[in-house]
TrEMBL record:
<dbReference type="Pfam" id="PF00005">
    <property type="entry name" value="ABC_tran"/>
</dbReference>
<keyword id="KW-0472">Membrane</keyword>
<feature type="domain" description="ABC transporter">
    <location>
        <begin position="11"/>
        <end position="247"/>
    </location>
</feature>
<dbReference type="InterPro" id="IPR050107">
    <property type="entry name" value="ABC_carbohydrate_import_ATPase"/>
</dbReference>
<dbReference type="InterPro" id="IPR003593">
    <property type="entry name" value="AAA+_ATPase"/>
</dbReference>
<dbReference type="GO" id="GO:0005886">
    <property type="term" value="C:plasma membrane"/>
</dbReference>
<keyword id="KW-0067">ATP-binding</keyword>
<dbReference type="InterPro" id="IPR027417">
    <property type="entry name" value="P-loop_NTPase"/>
</dbReference>
<keyword id="KW-1003">Cell membrane</keyword>
<keyword id="KW-0547">Nucleotide-binding</keyword>
<keyword id="KW-0813">Transport</keyword>
<dbReference type="GO" id="GO:0005524">
    <property type="term" value="F:ATP binding"/>
</dbReference>
<dbReference type="InterPro" id="IPR003439">
    <property type="entry name" value="ABC_transporter-like_ATP-bd"/>
</dbReference>
<keyword id="KW-0677">Repeat</keyword>
<feature type="domain" description="ABC transporter">
    <location>
        <begin position="264"/>
        <end position="508"/>
    </location>
</feature>
<keyword id="KW-1278">Translocase</keyword>
<dbReference type="GO" id="GO:0016887">
    <property type="term" value="F:ATP hydrolysis activity"/>
</dbReference>
Length: 512
């Protein structure tokens, strides 16, 4: 070995073990990350990826093992320690404060002070702009975070980390919510960062992306590192085998189960923001029993508002909604749910789970008026508990039990719990936003199977997904949304992800 072939490690983890009650999350982990590399971590849901990264970021203390950063042993007690060692982390679930602006969020905890007193927002704004421009992040400092979609929130999180001077960046599933061209943009950003000498640790379930962007890939299986490979030497199939030992699934589904009975009818729906700007404009469609209607669009084009209007979480200014023939336009969210709408929300932490409550209480959430959660006027604990066990079993939620808090589940296992809950009680209509976001490929195939079976039994599904293979593979009907309007109908049997991607950006569209 010559000196030239030795790349100095930015991070070395040796013999890391971390136990939680009932679970060994990390067990004798060995990981070496070369400086200036993009190093990917892959593994099935609950394998221990996020835990390991939280250890490196000072959020968790390992029970055993050694951490070295740039050659020196470190013992972080808090993220502040990790940050001062130049490590930054963007979490699987964003942690921005909704009620603050981008600028406020970025400076939160590291406020620039002028003369030691007042916050120097002008300097902060300038620095944010510089970083944003340098890496093409397109971050606008004065926008309230609550007005941002998940794609923009993520860029803010990355900028926040860079703002604190991170040289080692941890990104936990940064692409889960991005559509293909946004992924390309992010990868360009990441390549720019490593060219500047930064080191990136990157977690993803999208193996083709991992192969595209990573310099090295480490596979974690059941808490331990089982292999580190060069992407040039493996295929995604091989990686999947290393992870879970199963074949890559395919979402193909062509036998139509569409009936001519309309389940949901949306007519001329318009939704406006507080300042009167239309975010959904004159949208009309029907979803039939047994039909999956997919909506393709770049995040932020009105999908979230459309879903929230159908769920009754956001007032619609004009238009009519009928469910099984009943006008539901003025129904409360709870009544719509009780009327048979299942809802897999875009943001599972803000709308899907009570993190500090046990799994069985989360089973009741949003379903508190229906069996098996109630008997007469009372909450039926036994019924809810038994049904939570069924969901854990049927949806393969990896957990030591139903009494642990939802916060202790890995991201993908939280998602499986939500999908299982929302598929319970034979919904008439399922509104599914990114239903397999963050789940590993084996669990993804299982969720697709559950959806197909329910569809064959008459379930109508409104599907929103950034995963174009999933959209194309599952949808019977596919529409493209752009700036709040439905701009195209696409035949899912004949469209490629590339064609769909360009329809989503309005390529070839007349725009006014
Ligand atoms: N705070 C905690 N308390 C108890 N158990 C935990 C805690 N955090 C994680 N775990 C458990 O540790 C294991 C590893 O979880 P982790 O979040 O690291 O998985 P992951 O590889 O990131 O999975 P995913 O792909 O689903 O995000 C899981 O069994 C999880 O339930
Ligand atoms: Mg995780």
């Amino acid at each position: 070995m010559t000196a030239a072939t030795v790349t100095e490690p930015a991070v070395e983890l040796t013999g890391i073990t971390k136990r939680f009650p009932g679970v060994v999350a990390n067990s004798d982990i060995h990981l070496r990350v070369a400086k200036g590399h993009i190093h990917a971590l892959v593994g099935e849901n609950g394998a221990g990826k996020s835990t390991l990264m939280k250890i490196l970021y000072g959020m968790q203390r390992p029970d055993e093992g050694e951490i070295r950063v740039n050659g020196s042993p470190v013992g972080f007690h808090t993220p502040a320690d990790a940050i001062s060692a130049g490590i930054g982390m963007v979490h699987q679930h964003f942690m921005l404060a909704d009620n603050l602006t981008v600028l406020e969020n970025v400076v939160l905890g590291s406020e620039p002070r002028r003369g030691g007193l007042a916050l120097d927002f002008a300097a902060a704004r300038k620095k944010i702009k510089e970083i944003s421009d340098a890496y093409g992040l397109g971050v606008r400092p004065d926008v309230p975070v609550e007005d941002l979609g998940v794609g923009d929130r993520q860029r803010v999180e990355i900028l926040k980390v860079l703002y604190r001077g991170a040289r080692i960046l941890i990104l936990d599933e940064p692409t889960a919510v991005l559509v293909p061209h946004e992924v390309d943009e992010l990868f360009d950003n990441l390549r720019g960062l490593v060219r500047e000498g930064l080191t990136i640790l990157f977690i993803s379930h999208k193996l083709d992306e991992v192969l595209r962007v990573a310099d090295e890939i480490t596979v974690i299986r059941r808490g331990t590192t089982v292999a580190t490979v060069n992407p040039k030497d493996v295929t995604s199939r091989k990686l999947a085998e290393l992870m879970v030992g199963s074949e890559l699934p395919s979402p193909e589904t062509r036998e139509s189960t569409v009936t001519d009975v309309v389940a949901l009818s949306v007519r001329d729906l318009t939704v406006r923001t507080g300042d009167g700007r239309p975010v959904v404009e004159n949208v009309s469609f029907d979803i039939h029993k047994g039909e999956v209607l997919g909506i393709a669009g770049v995040e932020g084009n009105g999908q979230a508002e459309l879903v929230e209007a159908i769920m009754g979480m956001r007032p619609c200014e004009a238009g009519a909604l009928t469910l099984g023939g009943a006008d539901i336009s003025h129904w409360s969210t709870l009544r719509r749910r009780a009327g048979g709408i299942g809802y897999i929300p875009e943001d599972r932490h803000r709308h899907g789970l009570l993190l500090e409550s046990p799994l069985w209480e989360n089973r009741i959430l949003g379903h508190q008026t229906r069996r098996p959660n109630v008997k007469g006027p009372w909450i039926d604990r036994a019924g809810a508990r038994a049904d939570t066990r069924r969901i854990v079993e049927e949806y393969d939620v990896r957990t030591p039990g139903i009494d642990v808090d939802a916060a202790t589940l890995s991201g993908g296992n939280q998602q499986k719990l939500i999908v299982g809950r929302e598929m319970s009680g034979d919904p008439v209509l399922l509104i599914a936003s990114h239903p397999t976001r963050g789940v590993d490929i084996g669990a993804q195939a299982a969720i697709w199977d559950h959806l197909r079976t329910a569809r064959a039994a008459g379930l109508a599904v409104l599907l929103i997904s950034a995963d174009l293979d999933e959209l194309i593979g599952l949808s019977d009907t596919l529409k493209v949304i752009l700036r709040g309007r439905i701009v195209a109908d696409v035949d899912p049997a004949n469209v490629t992800p590339e064609q769909l991607g360009s329809a989503m950006t309005g390529a070839g569209e007349e725009t006014v």
